[in-house]
Amino acid sequence: IGRLRTHGQSSDVDQSALPAQRKHLEQQLAPFSPENHYNCNESGLVFNKQLQSSNLRGGKDDKVRITTFHKINETGTDKWKIWVIGHAERPMPFCQNRINQANLPVIYCYNKKAWLLTGL
């Protein structure tokens, strides 16, 4: 037995309008080849987060997070490197383990809130 917490605006979507919107989108994308259809997704990961309910009281939620950004074309032939956005310019584990950010299999960026901002 568990609890389900809903997030976001998924309940605000008018389900009856979806088929018409999909048809409209298909018409707009028709002039382009599938290699030029890209999908981009942003995802936030709040790690070290405590349970929402417990017997302990007090304290604030730990909001340490990273954001990831993924980009790939429809056919899967053009996969871009994943972007990871964190808080620190040079995170402590990078220093402790002598990790060169240029050699990472991802693109690492940073800003104060670890968000994907327009400047990036």
From TrEMBL:
Residues 64-116 form the DDE-1 domain. It holds the Pfam family DDE_1. Residues 1-20 are annotated as: Disordered. Signal peptide: none annotated. GO terms for molecular function: nucleic acid binding. This is DDE-1 domain-containing protein. It comes from Tuber magnatum (white Piedmont truffle).
